[in-house]
Amino acid sequence: MGKTDIVTKNYMRGSDIFADAFNFLIYNGEARIQSQSLQERDATELAVLFSNDSVKNETEVQQKYRDVLKRAVIMQNKEATYLLLGIENQTDIHYAMPVRNMIYDALQYGKQVSDIAAENRKTGKKRSGGEYLSGFYKEDKLTPVITLVIHFGTELWDGPESLHEMLRVNDKKILNYIPDYRIHLIDLARLTKEQLELFQTSLREVLGCIKYAKDKERLKEYITENTRMYMENAAAQVIKVITNTPITISEEEEIDVCQAVD
Question: CB within 10 Å: which end of the chain, N or C, has fewer?
């Protein structure tokens, strides 16, 4: 794992930063997802593949690792909505991102089905044939999964944002029978000044600094004129590593980035 992967993963794991990203995506910046409602989950997704060789009767286990996965509770009309929220950090453009995220989400749903089936079998209740075979009962429900991609690179994301964009077919009649899968993307190169203002945490300044990284004068202006450049160590690390800005990182929990640059 490269240094940029480590610092971005460490930064986005922070519950306040994580919540801010999804509030931007889903609620246009409104603080509906509270950081205290988030619970970190195991980011390992497992797939158990059975061998076609009935003699060997072997199984193959494949592992996929998300960057960050958290469980969220959102109150709507006095009712709790439970979600699983995952973030994938990209400094480089991944040209197969729709398939990659689709696999993550499918494995997570498969894991939920397996876990529910395991619990159901413990009850020993009599069930119909279909319920008995699958272990998943008619009244069982899954927790929705939303995966967000944050592109920390300075280049405009020019990769596909849906499965259909990756297919060798343009016939709409055929595409109607192929379920599409779209990624949810925060591409900082596309963010307007107004959109940056919707972020409530240091994520605003981190994305802003990276956005202007190729224009030294604009970056200097953004840092020196921004009154919110006093931020947590993890945020300053992301800015330093991705933009190569000469920030002096101390052992303090919070750093005045403007002063550190000076």
Answer: N
